[in-house]
Amino acid sequence: MNVLFLTLLDFQTLDESGIYTDLMREFVSEQHKLYIISPTEKRKQQPTRLIDKGTYKILKLQIGNIQKTNVIEKGITTLTLESKFKQGIKTYFSDVKFDLVIYSTPPITLQKAVSYIQKRDNAKSYLLLKDIFPQNAIDLGMMKKTGVKGLLYKFFRAKEKKLYKQSDYIGCMSQANVDFLMNNNPEIVRQNVEICPNSIEPKVVKLDVERSNNIKLKYNIPLDKTIFIYGGNLGKPQGIDFLIECLESNRNNQNAYFVIAGSGTEFSKLQIALQEGQIENAQLFSQLPREDYEILANSCDVGLIFLDRRFTIPNFPSRLLSYMQASMPVLAATDSNTDIGEVIEEGSFGRWCESGDLQMFNKHVQDLCSNNTRKVMGDNSRLYLEKNYTSKHSYNIIMNHFK
Question: How many domains does the chain have?
């Protein structure tokens, strides 16, 4: 099959690890002819170019700036994406007849590019639903359904519905995502919607105690405490206010130490809170050398996940997979609409509490400071990953429609 993958992820090779690159490697390994459009932002000053890797091709499409920029520029870039992707297909892939086009949200604004391939090549389409927009913006107060802002909501909501309608198949991250999608979009054909979870090609992670201790000493992280790590985006979706409450509440906990590594719009708020609160059993890192971070992340004891309590959409952060790969138990504090907590507890590889429930969060922290508890949950974590969240598993779900 000739397969086209449309993504906003900026990469130049499938050798990188991630939920999309790992999945696309499965298509290559199964002898499909793979074509990818992976954009590069204008600020990088790299012209549009085609990278031929032999078994696959990547079109590096120059687009406007969409990250770490102002709202106006981000908005313009988002709205022009589908025309740029469509033109890129016409210019570089005019002689390729595609059988399948795979795309993910965000964004929802690739609808016309997908439609073009469907009509031109009679191709089937598969949507990997990773983000439910614009409802997530409504949840966080960034958009409204009424007034002037309501016009923007209605525009994007119409785009969203068109994308769902034209998608032959929709793969959701979990059962809660399936239920939410169907409850709010009853016009979608139920048989076309299924669970196709976030997944990776699990690496073998061997803990080198000497390297682990050396990296902790390098960054002044104690060797005699249970290390809780949060790695990833530090923005409004993560509910940073509750994370700050948790750190302040555990400032005198002699058994726990917290490592936060990431970036985002709420980074400075977290940084100020740590400084003003003089929280000594926590450290915040904006950037670490890649090798150092990987050693550190695999050397910690418990992985943390935070989501804003206001969410009505069921998010399922892919950050979970890196913790599971490292055989790490997980402590999640999220809204009550996502089912990530149910999955964690049913798989016996961690603990969950609702974001805002400080008493329960602290109870879980104390529980996870026990070596016996962590060892069993850590083993379960890796086992659950290998049984349910491998890229091979996701590949088979997609290709089951073409057998």
Answer: 2
Tell me what pLDDT residue 83 has: 87
In degrees and rounded to multiples of 5, residue 200 shows phi and psi of: -140, 170
| Mean pLDDT, the chain, whole residue set | 92
In a domain, 401, yes or no: no
pLDDT given at position 7: 93
pLDDT, residue 3, reads 97
Residue type, 382: R
At 272, which CATH number? Answer: 3.40.50.2000
The answer to whether residues 267 and 365 belong to one domain is: yes
- Domain span at residue 382 reads 209-388
- The pLDDT value recorded for residue 256 is 96
CA–CA dist 200, 394 (Å, integer): 9
The tens digit of pLDDT for each residue in 77-97 reads: 777 788 899 999 999 999 999
User: Is residue 203 a part of any domain in this protein?
Assistant: no
Helix crossing, 240-249 with 358-368: angle to 10°? 60
Choose one of 175, 196, 217: the last residue of a domain: 196
By CB atoms closer than 10 A (0-12, 13-18, 19+), residue 19 is: buried
16 and 75 part of one domain: yes
pTM: 0.91
